């Protein structure tokens, strides 16, 4: 994973004109990218009308200390499966460290810990994920559909989903207002 060719621990930003409308203004936290494929959690959009309290109610977990944070659209793969991208100060039975930058958990123990006030100090909850088979993301990166950026904790935890894409672009030195969906002819 230390190969600079791979994007684990970075953010993948959809460029205007992305052919798949599910990824319009997408910000994807890349949790794994290697020769076998890639997995990321979308953090650029929230699921309207669904908050953490609704999710906890469905799982029969008392809200406790958990704020009613928005639930993000993590991606089109397994949209009913939950994931928590969180600070590395907490680890559960399936938590995976991501390039020393954050952790990813996908079991209910992280939600129980958050509700008890004993979970990670910083977190974002999402349903679904974005996945690419072997070589698929690498092929997509050869076209102008994606931009990868390093990003930071402010982008991950302190920027609301509606502002995250523009903030990531600006942080990368790109003025999002100057981007267009198509190319012209000369």
Automatic annotation (TrEMBL):
Pfam families (alphabetical): DUF179
InterPro entries referenced in this protein's UniProt entry, alphabetically: AlgH-like
Any one GO cellular component localisation term in the record: cytosol
HAMAP family noted in UniProt: UPF0301
Family affiliation: Belongs to the UPF0301 (AlgH) family.
This protein's name: UPF0301 protein EAH84_04075
């Amino acid at each position: 994973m230390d190969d600079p060719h791979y994007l684990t621990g970075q953010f993948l930003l959809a460029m205007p004109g992305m052919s798949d409308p599910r990824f319009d203004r997408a910000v994807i936290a890349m949790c794994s990218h290697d020769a076998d494929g890639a997995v990321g959690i979308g953090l650029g959009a929230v699921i309207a009308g669904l908050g953490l309290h609704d999710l906890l109610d469905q799982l029969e977990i008392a809200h406790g200390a958990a704020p009613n944070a928005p639930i993000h659209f993590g991606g089109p793969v397994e949209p009913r499966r939950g994931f928590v991208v969180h600070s590395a100060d907490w680890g559960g039975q399936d938590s995976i460290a991501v390039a020393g930058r954050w952790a990813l958990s996908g079991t209910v123990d992280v939600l129980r810990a958050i509700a008890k006030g004993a979970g990670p100090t910083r977190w974002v909850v999402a349903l679904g994920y974005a996945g690419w088979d072997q070589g698929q993301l690498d092929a997509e990166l050869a076209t102008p559909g994606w931009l990868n950026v390093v990003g930071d904790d402010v982008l991950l935890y302190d920027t609301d989903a509606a502002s995250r894409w523009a903030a990531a672009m600006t942080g990368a030195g790109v003025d999002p207002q100057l981007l267009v969906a198509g190319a012209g002819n000369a």
